């Protein structure tokens, strides 16, 4: 069985979505993120941008094989905001994404059911407005060799259509390549079986 080696994500933030219920306004934002530092930057920006809002509830998921996720209700009743948002991330099967729903309180309580619907709908709308793309899960290898073996290494890179991420070509050469996960073992063995050439996972 071939393991899945692709994942879905977004590479640009779409226009925010807008949802209104009993005078409360909900603005949904989606951002591509690579780590928790990215999450922090977007949250700080939105809190400045919407400083008079009441809540900035969010959920994010990061990673392809090992997933890190978090859902935050930011003062709303337990599980009425963060989890409904996270549920949409799961439903659209996306990762490396942050969704924030900013709420301006309109003076009328919505109740837990109303909040769940509002946060879920906001997250769903912004995901529907997003351009979801598919990317491959890639493994990075570092290949070390002497300059005289350059042609051998380059031939394999060309034949296998491998991506070079960076290279240092001197007397001792180093090339870092990126290989789609499902092909990584084959590529590793090709280089590993060559005399005077070493390969290791980065």
From TrEMBL:
Gene3D superfamilies (UniProt xref): Impact, N-terminal domain
The organism's place on the tree of life at top rank: Bacteria
Transmembrane regions listed in the UniProt entry: none
Domain (Impact N-terminal) ranges: 22-127
InterPro entries: Impact, Impact_N, Impact_N_sf, Ribosomal_Su5_D2-typ_SF
SUPFAM superfamilies: Ribosomal protein S5 domain 2-like
Family stated for the protein in its record: Belongs to the IMPACT family.
Family matches, as PANTHER family: IMPACT FAMILY MEMBER YIGZ, IMPACT-RELATED
Record-given protein name: Uncharacterized protein, YigZ family
Organism per entry: Algibacter luteus
């Amino acid at each position: 069985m071939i393991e899945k080696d692709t994942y879905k994500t977004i590479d640009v933030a779409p226009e925010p979505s807008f949802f209104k219920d009993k005078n409360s306004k909900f603005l949904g934002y989606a951002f591509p993120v690579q780590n928790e530092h990215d999450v922090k930057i977007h949250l700080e920006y939105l809190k400045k941008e919407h400083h008079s809002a009441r809540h900035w509830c969010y959920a994010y998921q990061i990673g392809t094989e090992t997933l890190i996720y978090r859902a935050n209700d930011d003062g709303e009743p337990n599980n009425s905001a963060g989890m409904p948002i996270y549920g949409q991330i799961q439903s659209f099967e996306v990762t490396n994404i942050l969704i924030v729903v900013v709420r301006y309180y309109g003076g009328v309580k919505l109740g837990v059911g109303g909040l769940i619907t509002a946060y879920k709908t906001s997250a769903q709308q912004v995901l529907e407005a997003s351009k979801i793309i598919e990317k491959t899960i890639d493994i990075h290898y570092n290949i070390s060799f002497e300059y005289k073996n350059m042609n051998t290494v380059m031939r394999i890179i060309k034949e296998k259509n491998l991506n070079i991420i960076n290279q240092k070509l001197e007397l001792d050469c180093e090339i870092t390549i990126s290989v789609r996960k499902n092909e990584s073992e084959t590529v590793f063995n090709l280089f590993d079986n060559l005399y005077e050439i070493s390969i290791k996972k980065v």
